[in-house]
Each structure stands twice: as C-alpha cells, then as structure tokens.
Amino acid sequence: MDPEVSGAIQQQIRAIKEALATTVDTYMRCQGKNEIKARQLQNELAVLLGANAPEKPRQYTPENTSLMDDQVYGGDLKVAVARPVNESQLMAVELSFGIECGDDTILLIYEQNNGVWHRSVRWNSDDYGEISGAFGDFFQYVVMPSGPPMGWVVAVAHGHPWCTSRWSAFDLDVIEPAQGTATQRLLFHKQDGYVRETDPVMKVKSDGFELRFEKGCLDLGIMTRSGIYRYQFVGDQMHRVQPVAMNGRDFVDEWLQTEWSDAAQWSETSKLKELEAKHAGFLQLRSPEAKGGPLFSYGPVRACSDDAKRFVVELDQDPGTPTYFQVQQGENSFTMRAISHIPFPQCKGPDLMRTR
Asked: Which of 139, 163, 229, 243 fits 158 for a cystine, CB–CB 3.0-4.6 Å?
C-alpha cells in the first residue's frame, strides 16, 4: 500500500499507455469501411490484448499471496468499446490497467472519415509521482453535441485512487476533439472532493450533462450529502446550472463550499456585494491557513410565513454564534436571499428537517 510511484515505474506506465494506444489505432485503421459493431470490436481487442480475463477467486492463503495480481502495475487489463449515445458515427474505446490500490484509464474516441477510422480524442493521465495522479477510482464519460466545426465534445469525470481514505478528489474535463491538423483542446477543467462509497452517475442532458455522487458536508454529524454538478454547453464555454442540491440545507452547504463565481449565479442580484462578503468570510474560516477554526453543525430549517417557498437554514458554529440563511425555492432551484446573525422574525415555522 505504497502510494509513491518511482521514476522507473512511471516510465513503464507511460510505455504501456503508448503501446495500448498505438495497438488500438492500428487495429481501427485496419477496419476500413467494414461495418463493425461495438461488442464485436471489444471481443476482438480483448483477445488481441489478452484483456478482460475472468475475475479470480479472492481466497488467498499465506502460501500463495505472491500470486496476487490486483495490486500489480499493468495487471488486470480491461477493454470496453461503445458507440456514444446520440453520436453513432463514433467509436469509444476505454482501456484500464491495475496500479497500486486502484487502476488507471485511457479513453480513445474514433471517427470514420473517407472510409478510415481516425482517432479524435485520447485522454489519459500524465506521469504521476503518487497513485492519486491516475485516472481511476471511477471513470465515466459522455459525448454531447456542440456547435461547429466539430459538432461534438466529450466530458470525462474520474476519481483519484488512494489506499486508505473514503475521501478523495475528482476531475471533470471537457475536451474538444482533434480535427485535421488541429490537436484536441481542453475546454473546461474542474476539481472537487467526493466520497468514494457510492458509484457516481453521469448522464447526457439535452443541453449538456450532469454528474451526481456523494460529497462531504460542513456538518460532521451529517458527514455526507448528494452532490449535483449540471453543466450547460454555451459556445465553447461550460456553465454550471441548477439544480445543485436536493433541498434547502444542502443548497446552503453547496453555496458555502463552492467558488463565488458559481455562488453568485444562485444569489439575490440586489444583494450581491453583501452576500459576496459573507461568502468570502466563510471561505476564510475554512481555509487551510486558518488555525483553530470553528466546527459547523446545521440547526433547524424553518418555513417563513410571508412566502410558502421561503425558508431559513440555521448554521451553528463552535465557537461562535449561529448564522441564518434565507433561501428562496424555485423550480428545480434555490436562491440565496439574505444572511444574518439574527433570526428572521417572519421565519419561525416548525423544523422541516428535524428527522434528517
């Protein structure tokens, strides 16, 4: 369970990636104008590469532990081939191999032009000195339509392997494919934290994509909550849009943890300066440089008498005083309206999340 990757192993990882990509490139060029199915191609590549071996029984004894290969770099090679939803002219090949405490993954996407399959996307990790640099833990992608000249882009989400913790980070990237002499281009990148206990779910939407998984909550008593990352593709820019939370309390938690550029889009426009200052104050309390910061815990979530869609979420600090967040519920959305250290007098309804 050593997370460090030596220079020699880094070179070997780089070599196996090159060998796999070159082999699949050559194999795809040999297909010509033949009509091929994804399952057929997957089976043929698996035979060629010696991949997709049946799962071995995990009943090891002290005498045969040397035969364990689930922690061997380059072992347990897998290949999966699919035609992306709504982009049937493409063929996507996903290759993964074992590393210490996880795996590393390569994504290759091919498009046919004049009867020849050309690779348009190759997405894989760079050299890494620790296993967390690998594209593993989970690996999902969706292909979605975009404007000219290419007409499509691919969004890739993956975790970072580690040997011990249930907490890790994920990367979210959007890549424009190569065309002619132009190489592929990274259009968008985001990194954030997530909890590794459940498998993330990534789906194509009519105007972009959505990624859902468990992520950490400010309240250590609650520990985790649902994270929603939905993005729209506008021109060559990705914009995060709502919904970003399942309920008002989770919305406050997300609003406090995300960067202001996103939180501002979910805030009352007439109070942006005031809300930005409050947002910055909470980020400062939680910054790595802050020592002896408070512990957070959520109190009641109460309805307001002046609007059936308005609520107040209480956040307690130890040490410190409670903070009250007034939230407006919309259609699949929430808006931060106001923040105060004094309870809002019109918001004294029963605790709507007492049992959660």
From this structure: 139
